[in-house]
Amino acid sequence: MHLHALSCGRQTGRFRGRDADPLTIPTPVFLIEHPQGRVLVDTGLHPAMGHDPASRIGGLAKAFSFALGPGEDVGGRLAALGVDPAGLHALVLTHLHYDHAGGCGLVPPGVPLYVQAREWEAGRDPEAIATHAYVPADYAQDRTVHLLDGGHDLFGDGQVLLVPTPGHSAGHQSVLLTPGDGPSVLLCGDACYFADWLDTGRFPPWTWDREQERRSVDVLRGHRDRGARLVFGHDPVAWAQVPQAPARVF
Length: 250
What we know:
With 250 residues, this protein is of the alpha/beta class. The chain has helices spanning 54-57, 74-80, 98-101, 117-122, 126-131, 210-225, 236-239, and strands spanning 2-13, 23-34, 37-41, 65-67, 90-92, 113-116, 145-148, 152-153, 160-164, 173-177, 185-187, 229-231. The protein has a single domain, classed as Ribonuclease Z/Hydroxyacylglutathione hydrolase-like (Metallo-beta-lactamase, Chain A, 4-Layer Sandwich), CATH 3.60.15.10.
């Protein structure tokens, strides 16, 4: 099994808190190459976010700025690797926020989606859509959707586990990879933005459920303490140390 890390755009805003200085963060996407098939984890920003973000996220665009150049969306990144998205085994979304589900339309609808049922419900609820960063058009494709209720072993061999880590969003999940020849790697998604937040109890200024978020960080910390390498959601310093495609993380 192998893992590729893809940078699919950048965002600038006050991600460390409303009183913090603006910070430019990466928008990570991951490609897992498992013997039984390729899996895409998240899809980054919609291509329009590079030139007309308000057309996708409305007034929320006033709070952030975005950079997404030609070939930097998930379709371009996969093409650069010679990967046909129609041949993917599965699409896994850690959650449905615009910077994680924005590129779903670039993944053919024949590719099945794996998402937590609570997240899918929130992403289709009018009140949640109005108050959180859900853009239903991002994930409105007519595809097979596997709604999960808890942890899930994607291939049945323990190598790709979907781990519930709710709090940042209603049904957030992280992805635990356990290759046969190395330590586990935990793709945290947005359960923890920055490496230094893992032990300090700090969180983004926006959340779905703060207490759930705290418990999910405890889950991440437990995996870290058992030897897993954590890949954080939007940490520019940590991301600079992650080998970028076409190189492999492992």
